[in-house]
Amino acid sequence: MLLKDNIIYFRYASGSRTTLKLGSVTVPSGQWQDLRVEVTGNRLRALLNDQLVVETSDDAYKVGKVGLWTKADSVTCFDDVKATAK
């Protein structure tokens, strides 16, 4: 299988993608997962099923947008996607 077991923070700007940080995690196939992204100031955290997978920071932007991306060899469905300000 070509599927990767990771969650990666990317910055996408001016038509190019830059890797900020990669976190390795086993992602079970064929079942729903809970992916949560937390942003506080410049700090970024990603949790899969309440387990911290990757944490980084980025000072490039004070505001921005969120995007979800998967590899071409994966079959992924997203449901109940929310962005909430605290």
Describe this structure in words.
A hairpin with a 2-residue loop joins strand 3 (35-40) and strand 4 (43-48). The protein is an all-beta fold and 86 residues long. It has strands spanning 6-13, 16-24, 35-40, 43-48, 51-57. It has one domain: Sandwich (Jelly Rolls), CATH 2.60.120. The chain contains no helices and 5 strands.
Average pLDDT for all residues: 87
Strand order of the largest sheet: 3-4-5
What is Rg? 13 Å
Largest sheet: 3 strands, antiparallel
Structural class: mainly beta
Distance, first to last CA: 39 Å
- CATH topology (level 3) name: Jelly Rolls
Q: Tell me the β content.
A: 35-45%
Count structural domains. Answer: 1
> Could you name the CATH homologous superfamily?
Exo-inulinase, domain 1
List keywords for this structure.
single chain; 86 residues; mainly beta; Jelly Rolls; three-stranded antiparallel beta sheet; two-stranded antiparallel sheet; 5 strands; 0% helix
State the gist of this model.
Helices cover 0% and strands 42% of the residues. The protein has strands at residues 6-13, 16-24, 35-40, 43-48, 51-57.
Q: Can you lay out the helices and strands and say which pair or pack?
A:
Blueprint: E1 6-13, E2 16-24, E3 35-40, E4 43-48, E5 51-57
Antiparallel strand pairs: 1-2, 3-4, 4-5
